[in-house]
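Dear Dr. L.,

I hope this message finds you well. Following up on our conversation about the binding site, I have prepared a predicted three-dimensional model of the protein together with nicotinamide-adenine-dinucleotide. For your records, I am including the exact sequence and ligand specification that went into the calculation, followed by the C-alpha cells. Please feel free to forward this to your student if that is useful.
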Amino acid sequence: MNAQRSIVDFGLTDKVGLVIGTGDGMGQATVAALASAGANVACFDLERDAAAAAAKIAEQAGRNALSLTGDATRREDVAHAVDETRRVLGSIDVVVGVVGDGAKKGARLLDTDDDAWNRIVEICTKPAVYAVQSAVGPMIEQGGGGSFVFISSIGGLSGLPGQAPYSAAKAGLMSMVKTLALEYGMEGIRFNAVAPGIIHTPEIDRISTPEHLAVQTKQVPLRRMGRPDDVAKAILFLASDLGGYVTGQTLAVDGGVTGKYQMPAFWAEWEQD
Ligand SMILES: NC(=O)c1ccc[n+]([C@@H]2O[C@H](COP(=O)([O-])OP(=O)(O)OC[C@H]3O[C@@H](n4cnc5c(N)ncnc54)[C@H](O)[C@@H]3O)[C@@H](O)[C@H]2O)c1
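The resulting structure of the complex is given below.
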C-alpha cells in the first residue's frame, strides 16, 4: 500500500519562486513563507536593500536565494529577472506579484488627472502583465505546471472613495486571473489573487495615526489588523500544491471586512466595545 501523502506537503521542495516587490511588508513575509515551505526564492525589488534583505531571509531558512534589482513596470527588467531566476536557481515555478500602490490619500475622480490615473494603474497591473508574459513560456518549456499569485486589495472588491484608479486596477487583477486561468489551464498553470484588508505593514504606520488605526480596527469583525504573514500564508496556499485545484480565484484576507453589510445604525451597536 502506498504511504499516505501528508496534506501539508506544499510540493515546493527545490521549486523556485520569484517574488516581485520584497519590501518589509507582505513581500518579505511571502519570501519567508515560500522559503519555509522548501522553495528557493528570487527576490526582485526596485530597492537593492529590500531585495537583499529578503534574499537573506530565504538563505537563513536554508534555501538558495537570489537578489535582483529592477523596475517591475519595465518589461525588460521583469524579463531579465525571470531569465536570471532560471539561470541561477534552475527553474521558475511560482511567481508572486506584490508591487502595487500603497494606500495613499487619493482624490475624487474629477480631480484625478491622466498622470495620476496612469501611474497607479501601471504600478498595480504592469508588473503582473510582464511577469505572466515573461514566465509562462519558460513554465511551458519546463513541462507545464506553475502558479502565479497577485496581491490585489479589498479596494478592488468594494468601493474605496478617492481611489478610483486603485480600485479599477486591483479589480482588473482579479478579473485577469480568471481569464488567464482559462487561457493556460491546459498547461497546468494556475493564476490566483489575494485581496488583503487592512494589513499592519510598516508603510501603514508611516501614513496613519494610532488613533485612526484604532478606529479602523474596531470595524474589523476579527477586531485586529491583519499581519503581513496572514497574507503570506494565503499566498503560500494558493502558490503551492495545497491550492492545486484552485485557479482563477481571489481570496480575501481581511478579517471578515468584505462580508460585512454596512448598515451604520446596526454596526454602531457592535462597535462600541
Ligand atoms: N498594506 C495594506 O493594508 C494593503 C491592503 C490591501 C492591498 N495592499 C497591497 O499589498 C501590496 C503590498 O503592500 P505592502 O504595503 O506590503 O508593500 P510595500 O509598498 O511595503 O512594498 C512593495 C515593495 O515593492 C517595491 N516596489 C515599488 N515599486 C516597484 C517597482 N516599480 N519595481 C520593483 N519593486 C517596486 C517597493 O520598493 C517595496 O519594497 C501592494 O500591492 C498593495 O497595494 C496593501
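In brief: The chain has one domain: 16-203+226-254.

With kind regards,
A. P.
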